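[audit] Reproducing an earlier prediction to check determinism. Same input, same settings, fresh worker. If the tokens differ from the archived copy the diff job will pick it up downstream; this log only records the rerun itself.
[audit] input (274 residues):
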Amino acid sequence: MLTHQIALVSKTRHIKTSDLSKVAAALQKQATRDLGPIWGIQATVDAFELLKDVPAGYWPIIIKDNIHEPGAAGYHTDKYKQPFALVQFDEGWALTSSHEMCEMLVDPFGSRMVSSGSIKQGQGRVNYLVEVSDPCEDDTFAYSVNGIMLSDFYTPNYFDPVSTPSVRYSFTGAIKAPKQVLKNGYLSWLDPETGRSEGDGTMSRYMVVVERGESSWGAHVPDLPGCVAVGETRDDVLSLIREAIGLHIDELKQAGQPVPKPSSEGEFVDVEAA
């Protein structure tokens, strides 16, 4: 079995080297003792002070003070198609790092899907994106490893067609039935008939387009026409667009209008300069 190497890297001065090492050790135990046997995965986790010191072939989890882009948290692939994850530094950075590690190890390239009946009534079978920590991501469902709170994750039985009392649906047992979404969690799927991505849960992730002007910054949400914001700095406009999204959705609900589901996606394309 191939062993994956994970590198935990801090790019913030708020994390001591000793704390980074402690979290890496907890993640190593989670990967070896908890996640690995359930999902058939082998992995190592090591802490590095500098990103440039990470050996080739390692998949980095990078903790930063500001990851800038809304929705950028999570794992991605670089220009060589190798996975990496970005984590926004806050008091829950270890829990978020655990979330991203579990999902990166189970689905390194973000394309693994499982076919099962939709939780949406009348929809039929759909293809669920395998994101093992999303349905149970709230910190109330975390568990302790070496005194550090780490993310729960679902098991392969999560997509079973029927519930069985003796079956384990998440590592901690917080998930009690197939395709259950816990508080503040979510579940994403693709409808093969329409080709549309859909989701269920208390959290929605909208793509935001940020544009720099001559003297200010602007932002808009493609899936929410008319939802815009302008700020003096990038941080200002990101804060304002988050507020604008909440207000926009509240106005739609009060007016009895449907709230559009997130469906837009963004990507950077490298081209040769003219």
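[audit] rerun output stored. Observation attached for the diff report: The first helix runs from residue 17 to 39.
[audit] end
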